[in-house]
Every structure is written in structure tokens, then in C-alpha cells.
Amino acid sequence: QTQNKSGTSSGSSSSDKVTIMVGGAAKVIYMPAKLTEQLGYFKDQGLNVELVDTPAGVTAETALLANQAQGVVGFYDHTIDMQAKGKCLQSVVQFANVPGEVEMVSKAQAGTIKSPADFKGRKLGVTSAGSSTDFLTQYLAGNAGVGTADYTTVKAGADSTFIAAMNSGGIDAGMTTDPTVARLTKTGDGKILLDMRTEEGTKKALGGLYPASSLYMACDYVAAHKDVVQKLANAFVKTLGFITSNDAAAIAAKMPADYAGTDKELYIKSITDSKGMFNATGVMDPDGAKNALAVLGKFSPAVKPKKDTIDISKTYTTDFAKAAKN
Amino acid sequence: MLRDSRRTGRSAVAVRRRHKTLVYALRLLLLVLILGGWELSVSLWLDPFFYSKPSLIWDKLVIWFTDGTAQGSIWAQIGVTLQEAALGFILGSLVGVVLGILLGRARLLAEVVSPYIQALNAVPRIVLAALFVIWFGLGMESKIATAFVLVFFPVFFNAFQGAREVDRNLVNNARILGAGRAQVLWSIVVPSSTSWILASLHTAFGFALIGAIVGEYTGATRGLGLLISTAQGSFDAAGIYAGMLITTVLALLAEVVLGLAERRLLRWRPPAQASFVAAI
Amino acid sequence: MLRDSRRTGRSAVAVRRRHKTLVYALRLLLLVLILGGWELSVSLWLDPFFYSKPSLIWDKLVIWFTDGTAQGSIWAQIGVTLQEAALGFILGSLVGVVLGILLGRARLLAEVVSPYIQALNAVPRIVLAALFVIWFGLGMESKIATAFVLVFFPVFFNAFQGAREVDRNLVNNARILGAGRAQVLWSIVVPSSTSWILASLHTAFGFALIGAIVGEYTGATRGLGLLISTAQGSFDAAGIYAGMLITTVLALLAEVVLGLAERRLLRWRPPAQASFVAAI
Amino acid sequence: MSYLVDIDHATKRFLTSAGTAHTAVQDITLQVTAGEFVAVVGPTGCGKSTTLSLVSGLEPPSEGSVSVNGQPVRGIPAGVGYMFQADAMLPWRTVLANVASGPLWQGKPKEQADALARDWVARVGLAGFEDYYMHQLSGGMRKRVALAQTLVNEPSILLMDEPFSALDVQTRALMQNELLDLWSGTSAAVIFVTHDLEEAITLADRVVVMTASPARIKDTFEVHLERPRNVEEIRMTPEFIAIYREVWSSLSDEVAIARKTGASRVA
Amino acid sequence: MSYLVDIDHATKRFLTSAGTAHTAVQDITLQVTAGEFVAVVGPTGCGKSTTLSLVSGLEPPSEGSVSVNGQPVRGIPAGVGYMFQADAMLPWRTVLANVASGPLWQGKPKEQADALARDWVARVGLAGFEDYYMHQLSGGMRKRVALAQTLVNEPSILLMDEPFSALDVQTRALMQNELLDLWSGTSAAVIFVTHDLEEAITLADRVVVMTASPARIKDTFEVHLERPRNVEEIRMTPEFIAIYREVWSSLSDEVAIARKTGASRVA
Ligand SMILES: Nc1ncnc2c1ncn2[C@@H]1O[C@H](COP(=O)(O)OP(=O)(O)OP(=O)(O)O)[C@@H](O)[C@H]1O
Ligand SMILES: Nc1ncnc2c1ncn2[C@@H]1O[C@H](COP(=O)(O)OP(=O)(O)OP(=O)(O)O)[C@@H](O)[C@H]1O
Ligand SMILES: [Mg+2]
Ligand SMILES: [Mg+2]
What we know:
heteropentamer, A: 14 helices, D: 267 residues, alpha/beta, 10 strands
């Protein structure tokens, strides 16, 4: 909790730089990344971490695979997808065992879309085709008996474009995260249909957990740099502890002012709403991991043919989070 | 040029035909070299995960054209993107040419608005694409708008400069002969600027396609941009390159059409001054 | 033009000064109109969530310049982006000019490679930006590369056409007077193409900035692009516009520099043929 | 008495690249009445073309005034035809289209303009070249296109800047006759710049000799040769030879001065 | 005997816009030896400039051959100087820089080139205009810059296309004398196109008359006037007048033909 900018850092300048990609640093679900930096926990561990922000999760992962970065703060399910493609990535700190996503319905359609069963014939927004939001949407619809051919997937992005699409009728419903959710609920332009920011909400929607926000790294790297990974885990788990033990306003105060945009209250509200998803220990829930595989195995064209051969245990490790000591 | 005019009549035609054959042969050779080099280096050293390779791309194209894509028939995707690009191209170049020429001849106006146009030109198009989604929605309009802004500026600046470069003698002579402002504009300034405008149009259709694709990237239900973005999202390098390839072919086809138009418009030129597109 | 040469000496200077004052006054008026209209319409009808307004943008700028940004001092962000853009601009225009002029004078080569260059020009830059991350990493190089490709093509096509448009008489005369190929290129083709090249450079710095920003969008630790993308991610319309405003101001400053260079290079012209930038 | 062209103490200065003023024409006063043919001769570079551009309205005088038809010149006065010293044809139009431009711009219907143009193209000896572009013509042919282009408009004030200098002697004589024919029936005023004294005297009612740069009017010689004149015959008459001598000696002095001041001139 | 310039049955055709061939020069044979001054006259548009362009190597013949210095012409032969009929100065260079271009391109050091240029600018009467740009010069001044630019290179084969047509009589005489002075000391061959028969006879050893289009060689007249010639005095001598008559009548016929065929010509 104490901010020690210069205090305990122990000759960290000599250590190698660790580049971590963040798939949208301003998104609340990836908040731990920037927060750790802001709190100085990387420095405390003697790490020289560079956070690279990119709005597209794909780019983050590509950079990792191309050895341009060592870690990614992104969705856990990418590690499964990558194993299907022959690349070994693993989650080392699991920030949350729920997606943190919310299926929103536009004001106009709030009366007619009451459950995924009503998706038939609708325009459903996702951040991007082939993204986790796409698979989750397909899963939700599929569970309710609506096939992919029965609705239209719209790439609506996140943020303002999503909101504009919802307002203008470009999408009837769509999946997004905070602060977009907070904004939509505040203005009343959208209503929450399914809230996957909490465990019970996720279980209700997906029939199980769905670990998402995480720090994942290449398996080789993890094996070769156990010390660095451990330090990273230490820092992140400490941050997760900070998140669970502080209120939203205190967290928001630690984040850069720009992340709050022009509406600080809205930002605090989004943290309040989403904060519950974070997992104080950073340890993966094994059932959640299996459930993620189940979801992808059903809808991801890459994972589907290989779902039986995928070794889920290679997609994450709990060693570091468990060993993390503050 | 020397070669061309050495003989006239039949033999000139023969020379030209031989030249054309040579050009096509060299182009083909270059293509084979590029594709072969790519295929080989990926097979030997590079990771096809990132770089894909021609044979994989070919497979992907075959699938797209026979089985269709995730978003439906490939022709539908091409059609949508082409339509957006074409509209953006037409609007952008039209407005660019008209404004460019008018401002090129209206000095005070040009001086007053030039910093604003320069400023607008520096606005990042991806940011604009997001704004356009907000303003125009997720339909075709926002993509046309993105294509428009990409096309407009190069065309505008070239038309502007072309209008400025007009030979004073020609204008003076026309005025003496009784041409009014509009007639000078139409009979002198526009034809003089033609090669300027055409030069900018060579890049413009490519830009229009890019604009449409950027727009689709930002938010869309169909189109080549979405196809590429889906391929990116699923780490399908072959899909990315296949999408780009289709874009590229579209641009080249547009160039051929533009080339025909250009040859007609610049028929009066001495033969040496053919332009880039005429070379295709 | 008529106005300019009517008087010489003192009174001409006075006329020019009066003209300049008028231009600046009109520009200011236009600025006030735009900002006032924006402020008013957002205050009255539009949603500041999407459209922001000048006063909010001003506040944001004040914060950035006094308290700094999420990524540190605003000057550091500007510096990074400017450096990327400048390098991309310099490299892109250099390579564009050199290749454009060489190809413009080497007919066979131009004919062979032209479809390839046209094809490359149609490759969407955002896709390229992602590829550049793979090739060049997350550092400045990938941003410079994006800026490069945005700058290269317009400059190349204009330089190419400029080299083609060179008056044959001038070339013939120079050859007769003993100029070799290189000398013709340097003494005739390059100066003749200057106005073509300059016209393309007017758009180029704006493009370089856009390229740098697109690159930063794709993944960065610092820079104006990141600033804008952060603002987008946190619904900070004022931040988006403020970022664009800074970009715009940078582009205008670059234009002023280019304008000075241009005035020097084209000193030999009759006064009427000043170009767009000279108007700033 | 009212003049068709009235140049009144006109001075024209140009800004040089060094920023100083170059006086091309100084304090010129010249009046031309309707139906009068004035030839202007002077050393090369003295300011003859500049004088014509003042009358045409293309350049405003720095001092003094120029009136055409009793009206001070602002913009291009109606009825002025000006054949430039330099090429000014539209390269993207054929010979015919170039000649037809004037009538078309002045609102004549297309067929009529084409018919007029076709007639004039033939009159300047270019029948058969109607569909050629400018870069396909020889220097003299281009000059003749310019001539046709100017004359087809039937200007009431005709400014001609060395129109025949690129023609062979015989074609030149033919063109001169053509010009005289055309002009004699009309009340057009002609100001004709030439370096050929024979040409000047053969054609003109009055020959104006200009001084070396800056151009002032040095002498004016009336030519009282009878009209209609046959260009080829008139040259051997004694009156002609007498005037020729006078003009020649007047001009010679100026050229000598021009060479001297030119050589010692500081720009 | 070896000729400096040897045009051997050369024919030149151009592709017209209609796609047909236009014969500009047909079956021309003309030899010029070192130190010889040949003037070429002919009706306007017949093919004189085209002939020069064949010798300069700028245009290859469609048939026949052209040799310079015993070598068949490919590209531009060494030692050729060509003063074009049309303007070809570099507009972005000053008068001095334009004239200095040749020496510089030929590898002379800057100061030497500038000194040479300065000398030649003065010799053509443009001292004081060294820093002017082309658009600031009169037509005649531009011609003189072109003259200086060509002569400063001291070509051994000098092609001149109506070099003096835009000059006043006196300046022209001065330039002619200058040219003769320069040439007399050297063994340069000169091919000089002009429309001025007096000029042709005054300057040349031989006057070649070309036919109407397509150009063939019609007549060749030797001029046996003594050298050095004084341009202004020679004109009144009986020999001069005799040759003038001959050339004139030879040319007159061609011009008449040119007019007739021109009028009935189908492009
Ligand atoms: N735009 C200009 N800037 C500076 N000086 C100029 C400009 N235009 C013309 N001059 C100068 O004005 C003078 C007169 O030029 P003008 O063209 O009127 O001569 P001219 O009598 O027609 O000569 P020529 O017989 O050679 O055609 C020249 O010394 C020329 O250098
Ligand atoms: N590029 C071309 N294409 C077609 N025809 C051409 C071309 N160049 C020249 N000609 C034709 O060749 C003929 C001869 O032209 P050239 O310029 O040699 O004449 P010239 O004797 O120099 O005439 P002038 O005395 O008028 O300068 C002309 O009839 C012209 O139309
Ligand atoms: Mg003149
Ligand atoms: Mg000629």
C-alpha cells in the first residue's frame, strides 16, 4: 500500500528489460498491468518492465510470438488457441477467473431481447471477428439454441464506436467491458443482459467459470527465466491484493488521470463494478480452464478439430502465483 | 523514344510489339522470382506462422473462392469493399479536383484556407475512421467517408498545384481571345492540370481501397477489411496475405481502367511523355 | 499578380503588407467561426461525449502541458512522435524522390516494376503496421517504417510523373551542350520536377505523422498515438481532439519550414506561380 | 479627337530578382486612331513587347495611363487582338481547335467557329494540317497558327509582336498582303512590332522608333505611300528608300547606345 | 575526301496522330567539310529543322544514314553545337548560369566556366543582365543567351536554326560579324538555317535551297565572295545581288509549290 518510488528498489537497472504487451491498458479488465507500474511494484522487485499498449489483443500476442515482447496481459483463452496452432504459451498469473465481459442490450431492444434465445435474427456486436468476445457470443447463442447463421456478427470495436453503434441501431446487443458498460448503464442507452464480471454471473451465463484477464508468456521463456517470472508474479499478485483490499476510489487515484477520461465518477463506477472479478491470489481455477477449452472447442475453427489433443495443463501454471510472497 | 520513332508504319508496330512482349516477360520473371524466393525462404528459414507462403495463400484463395468465407461468398466481400472504395474514390477525386482547381486560381481564398486544409490533412485517418463510425454509423457511409478523406488530400494538393503551374502565356492568350474566367478554367486550367491530377489518381484508388478497409477494420459486418481483420484475429497469416492480394488485384484492375482513360486524355502528347499507368 | 506588379519599390511592399494583414485577419475570423460554431452547437444540440467542445479541449491541453499525461510529460510524447515522423518523412521522401526520378527516366524498368509498385501502394497500411511490429519490433523502427510507407508512395508517384513531364527541349539542349546522363538528371530533371516533388511533400509530412501515430496505435509505450488511443479507450473525446490538435499543429509547423525551403528553391519563378505552402 | 488607343505618359517598371526596379518603358505617349497602322521598331530588349502588353491590359502601367476606346484600361479591353512574340497555343488542341477557340469563347456556335477556323487555317497556308498538334508543327507553322487565331476574331485593335519573323521571305510577303487586305476594309487600329524596317515601312502609316532601354519614343515617321500597297513592288520606289534611310539612321544610333549602355550597365 | 558532316540519302518520317507517316525530309544528301559555312533556306515548314536534328543525333533518320566526323551518328556526336529554333534555356538558372552550363557539363572548373560565360554574355550584348532569369528577358535577349550558350562551347560543328530572327537589324549585323569572327579562325563547319536570303549569302560559302515539304535539296549555290566579309558593306556588291537573284528565284518557285500543295494537301 505504501508507495515507495525510490525506497526499496535494489539495483534493478542491471536486470534485463521485460516488455509486456497490454491489449488496451485503459480497459478495466487489464487494469493490474498499469496499476502495478503505478504502484512501483515492478521496481520493488528489481524489474525493468516496459508496458506496451495496443488496442488489439492480436497484436499483443503476435509481438509475443515474434519475440518482440516477453509477456502479454490479455485473455487466457489465447493460450489454448495457440496450442492448437502449435505454439506454447502459458498463463503465469491469472488476474481473474471470469471474463469481465458484459452482454449489453440496446435501449430500443431491451424489451425484446431477454435472453440469448432472443438473439435470432439480431445484429450482435463483438470487438472483432475471431476474438474472445466472438466465441463467447457464439457460445451463449449456441447454448440457447441459436446457430451462428441465425444472427449477424458485427465488428463494433470497443469504446465510443460500440456505444455509437448501439445508439444508432447498428447493433441490437453486444459484448463489451468496462468502462463501456458503465457508460452505457449510466446514460441508459444500454442494459445489462448477462454480467460476466462476477463468478455467479459467469456461471449462470456460461455454466462455469471462464478465466480471462491474465499475464501469459511463452513456455520457453517461463522455463528459462523462472526468476524473472517469479518476480513478475510477485508484483502482480501484490497488485491483485491491493485491488481486493482497496476501494475503487483509492484504486482510481493510483491510476493515471488520463484513464479516467473526463468523467472521474464513471471511471470509479466501472472499477467498482468490475473489481469483484479480480482474483486476489492470481491462481488459475482448473475447472475454469477446462470450461474455456470447452467453449473454444465448440466454436473456434482452430481449436475445434484439435480439442481432444490439447493439453490444458500446459496452458497455465500456478507455481509462480502460489509461490508469490509480498 | 528514339527507338519508337526510328521506323514508322509496320516496323514501328513490330518494334512496339516486341517491346511489349519483353516487358511482360520481365514482369513474369520478376513475379516468379518474388514468389519463388518467398516460398523457398519460408520453407527453409522463416516461420510460416508469421510469413505464410505462396502455396498456403493459394490454398486459402481456393477455399475462399470455392467454399466462401466466414462472412459468406468472397464475391460479396469484394463487392462491398469495391463499392465503398469506388464511391469514396469518385467523391474524393471529384471534390479534390474541383476544390483544388478552384483554390488554385483563387489566391486570397487559398491563402486563407490553406492552413486549415493542411491541418485537416494531418488528422490520423484511423482516428477519423472511429469518428466516422460515430457520425455515420456502421454502414457503408462510414467506410466511404474514410475512403473519401484518404483520396481527397493527395488529389486536392496535386490539382491545386497543377492549377498554379498553368503557363501564364496560355492564360493570357485565352483571355485576349475572349475567354471568360469560367472558360479559362475549363479550357486552359483543367487540361493543363490533367497530368497533375492523373498522377494523383494513380495513388488514389489504392488509397480508396485502403480507406474502405480501414473503415471495415473499425467496425463492419462484411468486406475485405473484415476478412483480413478476422484472419489477423485468428493468426491466419495466409488469410491476411490472401486478403491483401485481392485488394492489390483490385487496385491493379482500377489502374488499367485509369490507364485507358489517361491514354485518351493525353493523346495530344509527344510519345515520350507517357505516364506511369500507361506503362502497365 | 496584376495587383503585385502594379507598383514597385515602397508601395509594392505596402500593398503586400496590407494583403498579408488581410489574410491573417480572415484566417483568424475563420478560426473564431469554426471554434465558436463548434462550442455553440455542442452546448446547444450535440452530445459532448462524442463531439467534445473547444473549451473542454483547451482544458485538456492545459492539463497535459502543466501536469503531464499518463505516459509522462507531453513534450516527451511530442518528441517521440515527431522523431518517428521526421525520420519516416526524410527516408520516405528521399527514397521516393530518388526512385521516382530514376524510374521516371528509365522507361523499361518503369514498365516492368510499375505493376508491383502500384500493387504495393494498395496494401492497407494498418495491416502493414502489424507486420512491421513482427519485422522491426515494438521500438521506433516499426513506427518509422509505417511513416515511411505512407510518405513514400505519393512522393514516388509525383517524382515519377515530374521526371516524365520534363520539357524535351531542355533535355535535348543540355545533351547537346555536353551534359551526360547524370548531369541531365541532376541539372534538368531534378529542378524540373521540383514543383511536383514539393507538391507531394506538402501532404507528406502530414502522412508521416499519421504513419507514426498508426504505428503507435499498433503498440507503443509513448507517443501521441498512444495518447489518442488511451483517450479513445477512456471515452475522453476532449483527449482525442486535443491529440489531433497537437498533431495538426506539428504538421503546420513542418509546412512553414517546407514553405521556406520552397520559396528558396523556386525563387526563379514569376511571382504568380507561388504554391500552396507559400500561402501559409 | 478621340483615339482608339491612347498611351499617356506611361511608365512600366518590373521588380527584378534583386528586389530593385527595372524600368522597361519610360514616359511613353502614343496615340493611335481607328484605321491607323502603326509600326514600332527599336533595339532588341528595349521595351516594345512591354508596350504592347500595356495596351492589351495584361500588365498595368506603373505610372501614367492607357486608354482604349476612350476607357482607361482595366482588364482586357474588348476588341483587342494580341499576337504574342512567344508561343501561346494550347498544346492539347489541334490546329483547327486552336484557331476555333476564339470564336467559341466569344459565344459563336461550334459549326460556325469551325468554319471560320477552317477558312483561316487555309488562308495562312496550313490547309491539311488541321488535325496536327502543336508539337508536330515547325516554328513557322506555329506562328501562322497564332496569326490565324488572332485574325479570326476580327479585332478592332490589333497588337502584333514580330508576327512574321519566323517565315521565309515569300510566305512573309503573302502574309503581309493578307494582313493588309484584311485590315484595309476595316477601321481597325494596328500596332505592329517588327525588326524588319522594310516590313515596317511597307505596312505602316507611321513608324515609331523607340530608344534603347528604357524605351522612350524617339522619332515618329509618317509613311505617305499610296494604298493599296503591293508588298513586293513598293520596296524599290524612291520614297520608300528615302524613308528607309531615315528610319535606319534613327534606329542605328539607338542600337549603338543600347550596346554601349548594355555593356556598362549595372543591373 | 572525308566530310565533317555527311548526310547520305537520309529520309525522316514522323508518325502523325492519325497513325499515318508524315515525311518531313526525303532522300537528302549533303556533305559539309571542315571550315565550311553552309546556309540552308527553304519554305517554312519544309523540313530544315528536321534536317538539323538528324545531324545533331537527336532524331535518327528513318532511312539513309548520317555521319559526323566519319562516324555514323548514334546519340549526340562530340563537338556538335546546336542552337534551337525554340527556347530551350533553363528557367531556373540565371543568364550567367545558363551560359556557363555547357563548360561546366564538359568538366571545366566553376571559375573558368563563369569567366567564359561572363565574357560571352558581354559579347552578345547582355552585360548587366547576368543575374536575370529567363522570364525577365525579352524575346531577342533570350535568343542571344542561346547564342552565347552555344558558342561558349566552341563547337566544331555548329548547327544554327534561325538564330538571329528575333533581333533588330543592327544587332543582327553585330551578331553576324561576331559569328564570322569566331568561325573564321577555326575549322568549324556551320550549318545555318535562315529565312533571310541576304543573311544566307552574306555568311555562307554555300547556300542550299530546299524544296517544299517533304524537303529535298533543290539547288546549291556557291558564294564566292571574298572573306573576311563585312556584313554591312557586302550587300551592295554586284556579285551579291546576282547570287541573291538566283537564290530568290529558286526559292520562290518552291514557296509557290508549297502554297499550292499545302492548300490541296490531305494530311
Ligand atoms: N518580368 C520582368 N521582370 C524584369 N524585367 C523584365 C520583365 N519583363 C521584361 N523585362 C525587361 O524589360 C525590358 C524590355 O522587355 P521587352 O520584352 O518589352 O523588350 P522588346 O523590346 O520586346 O525586345 P525584343 O525585341 O527582344 O522582343 C527588357 O530589358 C527585359 O529584361
Ligand atoms: N513530331 C512530329 N510529328 C509529326 N510531324 C512533324 C513532327 N515534327 C515535325 N513535323 C513536320 O515536319 C515538317 C517539317 O518540320 P520542320 O520543323 O523541319 O520545318 P522547318 O523547315 O524547320 O520550318 P520552319 O522554317 O517553319 O521552322 C512539318 O510539316 C511538320 O509538320
Ligand atoms: Mg519583344
Ligand atoms: Mg524550323
